Enoyl reductase (ER) domain-containing protein (Aspergillus mulundensis), 696 residues
Amino acid sequence: MPSMKQWVLANKPTDLPTVSGPNPTFKLETADVPKPSSSQALVKTLLLSNDPAQRTWIVPDADPNRLYAPPVQVGSPMSSFALAEVVESGSPNDLAVGSLVLAPTNWTEYSVHEIKGLQAIKPIEGLDLGHFLGALGLTALTGYYGIKEVVGATKDDTVVVSGAAGATGSMVVQIAKNIIGCKRVIGIAGTDEKCRWVEKLGADVCINYKKDSFEQDLIKETEGFVEVYFDNVGGSILDLMLTRMKRHGRIAACGTISNYNRPDPVGLKNFFEVVSMRLHIHGFIVLDYIHKFGDVVAELTQAWKEGKIVVDESMQTVVESKFEDIPNTWMKLFEGANTGKLVTKIVA
Amino acid sequence: MPSMKQWVLANKPTDLPTVSGPNPTFKLETADVPKPSSSQALVKTLLLSNDPAQRTWIVPDADPNRLYAPPVQVGSPMSSFALAEVVESGSPNDLAVGSLVLAPTNWTEYSVHEIKGLQAIKPIEGLDLGHFLGALGLTALTGYYGIKEVVGATKDDTVVVSGAAGATGSMVVQIAKNIIGCKRVIGIAGTDEKCRWVEKLGADVCINYKKDSFEQDLIKETEGFVEVYFDNVGGSILDLMLTRMKRHGRIAACGTISNYNRPDPVGLKNFFEVVSMRLHIHGFIVLDYIHKFGDVVAELTQAWKEGKIVVDESMQTVVESKFEDIPNTWMKLFEGANTGKLVTKIVA
């Protein structure tokens, strides 16, 4: 029976995950390549989606009722979404060998899936496959759902987007400014270079949160306060933004990456603003909107063809990695190393 | 010209307000009794409404844009709502001397108001006047608006109410259980005695947050998690409740009294629950619902007459105070000294 490599969870981390030292978070193992049944396909993982949310599935003492994906068990492969190629099909009429699919492959070389649960992908000429994980994938759906449905941004709104150079944020900026036509879009990102890129995507301005002047800069750019905040980061930036919202302002709470590797999260101290300014905060998860995946990708693909949004190499950071380097590449998410979607391209 | 007493703001406090010492928060002064114009009435303050929100109007360095009532200026009378009696009317046909009204009298013996801005009160036989400030007043409107409109509680919901023995909380418990018919109502209060009273009002159970076992008690009583949380207190209880909400749970954010006297508020560390459980948090202020005042008071008065809700002496803590003791009586709010509405009855 052929064997394959897989990365399994070895220890649940309380701070920054590791792949070495006495208590490594992940461990490389060998396993048998699974065999598909007549309703299944065996796929080979080509491109891995790197998502901050994965960090939340490996926390210690997690109550399975409180996570939106099942927690990864110690000894099981690390959960991950990917673009994969069908290498063996239990039902070739339904899904041919060689087809490309989106699938929860986890950090394994090969995996089997029910064919009806797989999302087939048709390559588009001139478009790198990685974008099906980012600008035209689940990440895009996250941004679209959050800004259009969860907080219902309109032309009359000024919108602030944190993590604006990240995979979700960079789509939110474009959807808000170039599709919805929001009055003003203000990005927040971690370097001047990222900020200039976010402005190229359509943001009226982008502020570098690592500068000493960040708080003053944000206050200046949000003079008169803002209607909408799309929060990708939580922590101190969210806390500051609570003080910059207009009365009845709406906040889309998409993630709290700033706290994911902290054993003791930064607490929100400005919560009284929620009362005094009658703020609405809505947490959301893209999975609740997954039934719209096809429609939204079609709409965004059309917007790209019409030149309304950018879907080019600037929208992703593709890292060619040997299978052995998968965790290290994923960890780049927490170093702010990527602009746009961080994609792992598995190479021999 | 006749003179009168008034309490003015002397220093904006960063922690517990004081009336003595080197930097007293409030100062007793003498002023001229104002004279009403032909469109105004002069009223004498009889009963003062004591509200935690007043604390938020005297914070230092407040941005007037961020408060829902104008901040009190140093040297100006402390803001307060009251039940008052008309002692001189510029237009007796519109408002006769001797009428009772609700008015923003502040902490003054006498004050003038535009007649058309005053809410006249008709005493109800068998009902203490104080209830027009509490169970049948603005406090009731706050609870009604929050639980019925802001989070739209229904028969299918389990509802947790903090500050359940307070003026707003005790009305929320009754409205949720006895008017809406919520499946289960869980109160949180600060003594066992208060808890037993909250259960008498209709709560299925009430938990004492000052007990060492509070966290375990709350977890036990919210097994399976809850749909609705009416938050009167903020801080650590809100933080804990974020972990006890069901998916898509709704939180009405009414106030954060637990932080009002802290220079450094307790921060919320469990905000990620808002994302993972898709929570909705809505801050609100009763002033946005003030146009419904008459309707809601009529509905609650009817509910009281039908025996659905309790409006008796247990629903208020009336403290007879000389004018000189007004600040000390107000401060009882922060000692948990009241059950139901804390009303100051001014006596000679």
The interface with chain B takes residues 56, 65-68, 225, 234, 238-239, 243, 253-256, 259, 264-285, 288 of chain A (CB under 8 Å).
